[in-house]
Amino acid sequence: MSTSQPLTIRHSEMKDAPDLIALDELVWNERTAPASLSWKSRGEFLRNSPPGSQLVAIAQGVLCGYVGFRPPTLLASNRHVLEINMAVHPDYHRKGIGTALMNSIKDIAAAEGIRKLSLRVLSCNTEALMFYEKCDFAIEGRLHEEFYIAGQFVDEVLMAYFI
């Protein structure tokens, strides 16, 4: 992201739902997810991703990426962990959007006493794997042949960042 294009990162709001739905439908496909993502309704999306459960990146008035976060379980013993998922519009790749989102969620997590961020990524999504490694996420495990996508078995890679 060049300094001439300011980037705003904020918590998601109700008004962001249409742009977030469109971004999900654009980004999540058989190369990046076990199945394409298509929300049946705005209500279904909002039940799954309520306002405030994501940080959104806005560049020149355009919602160009997000990082979603939630506790992996409802257990008190697991409250120190946030599970995250991230999407950046392809037109905004390699412009610092993902890095800015990742830095923001790390800062917020640290301020809230979160000790670990975890995520899941398909082994065939090499661009995402390299990005997460660049952001200091480490591989914690691998679910071998977890999915059968486009005629081949694909591993799911479990990654974590410790704050």
TrEMBL record:
Residues 7-163 form the N-acetyltransferase domain. Its EC number is 2.3.-.-. The keyword Acyltransferase applies. Pfam families: Acetyltransf_1 (PF00583). One of its GO terms (molecular function) is acyltransferase activity. Keywords: Acyltransferase, Transferase. This is GNAT family N-acetyltransferase. It comes from Paenibacillus farraposensis.
